[in-house]
């Protein structure tokens, strides 16, 4: 008689995302066929190992994916240690000698995050019958502990290196944008992957490279490793199947994808990075002052991160406004600025605000002729 296959455990997963981008990440999870639920700083979703692997392989705007290991109430350290020791840490940490623990405590009797982290470590060590060490080393597995109203939520990182570290930033620049933020800008623009795409302040090329990866259907996690590959429950054939499917999906984009910058050095860096990202055949970078820029078609998407800071900021936004109003009238324009009002006294349509390095970053979007209509010079 054939034995029924045991139902796969439902995993509770959490995609960590920069605050303000939850909706964009939720949109990405929906397009992977998952049902996201937004929270502050991330999005929860459920699934099995397939969904865990898919999220790591495909999410462009998240910084990592966490797996819930346990949730319980604890009001004393003794209780905390003994509860932590009940969970199967050997699945995830069988080879680990050191772990990172990030704890936050709010409205709870156990309020000292350092002491909570130590007790969690003690509970895990008890379970594994060996002493683990706490470390800050980014290479070590990460456990995230959240205590709220005496309820302890324990999650383990499934990703390893931050998901936005895609590995293609081989050539540095003075103000490169994080890969997941660049991806968010492209998604917020609503680009259809058909019309021309352009970043006229491309710097090291992050926005253009992310756009090309999206249009080419190139999974951002295809060429890197993840923590879950070290776990005891790792399913190499499932993982290989998902990677093979992802490899088969890569195709040259239909759209013209362009980046330009006034600096020859930046353009060279962008080209190098595009090569490392394996999209160099799909994009074109040119040296060009934004003042001399002409659209390659009457309609397209201009998505950019203009230079900001002191005097220059005003110049760059005004320059962009002038060029867009004169020559990119029908284009969809998206740009970001740390300033809520980058063109003083001129109302612009803000479509998102998210946090980056402790700063608020504002995203503005509109049709060329509309967005900067009220600018006077
Ligand atoms: C904030 S950086 C862009 C960073 C880019 N998103 C990245 O990921 O590297 C702004 C860029 O604008 C360029 N820039 C400044 N003035 C310019 C102009 N008039 N025309 C074109 N590019 C200009 C700078 O060389 C710089 O690379």
Can you describe this structure?
31% of the residues lie in helices and 23% in strands. The protein has 377 residues and is an alpha/beta fold. The protein has two domains: 11-157, 2-Layer Sandwich (VC0802-like), CATH 3.30.2130.30; 179-217 and 252-371, Vaccinia Virus protein VP39 (Rossmann fold), CATH 3.40.50. The chain has an eight-stranded mixed β-sheet with strand order 2-3-1-4-8-7-5-6. It has a seven-stranded mixed β-sheet with strand order 11-10-9-12-13-15-14. Helix 9 links the parallel strand 10 (257-261) and strand 11. It is elongated, with a radius of gyration of 23 Å. The mean pLDDT is 94. S-adenosylmethionine binds next to helix 7 and helix 10.
